[in-house]
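User: Design a sequence. Structure:
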């Protein structure tokens, strides 16, 4: 069985870098190899811009080291299918990366993205189904799959 593939919303990445809650455990699990991150250039660029924002508290070198490890372990994709499902088109890039990379889940606590999910906490994107999960829900999914969650 292949490891779960996951797209992390930027809000989860930043929360994971700055906090100790579920987002931090998700980030640790992904960095430990319990799930494989999926990123597009647009998604990763958003990560970098967010980490470099002056309002953030984490040590910059630590955050950049996390981004480096995330990049090295990621499935890198170039989406060719565009979605226009979100009011904020920047949120669509996470769905596009998930679709292109065959991701099992997008992990987010963005209310608009979460509002797109139907029964089973999933969203059908043409021929694929992608889970839209909060960090806590994703940790439960990892445990259920037998993967360590830190």
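Assistant: Done.
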């Amino acid at each position: 069985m292949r490891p779960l593939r996951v797209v992390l919303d930027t809000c989860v990445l930043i929360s994971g870098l700055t906090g100790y809650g579920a987002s931090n455990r998700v980030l640790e699990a992904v960095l430990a190899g319990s799930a494989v991150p999926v990123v597009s250039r647009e998604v990763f660029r958003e990560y970098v811009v967010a980490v470099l924002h002056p309002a953030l508290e984490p040590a910059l070198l630590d955050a950049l080291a996390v981004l480096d490890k995330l990049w090295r372990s990621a499935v890198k994709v170039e989406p060719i299918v565009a979605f226009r499902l979100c009011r904020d088109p920047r949120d669509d890039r996470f769905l596009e990366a998930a679709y292109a990379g065959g991701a099992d889940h997008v992990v987010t606590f963005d209310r608009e993205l979460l509002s797109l999910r139907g029964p089973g906490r999933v969203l059908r994107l043409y021929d694929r189904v992608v889970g839209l999960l909060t960090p806590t829900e994703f940790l439960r999914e990892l445990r259920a799959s037998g993967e360590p969650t830190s």
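DSSP finds seven helices and six strands in the chain. The chain has a mean pLDDT of 90.
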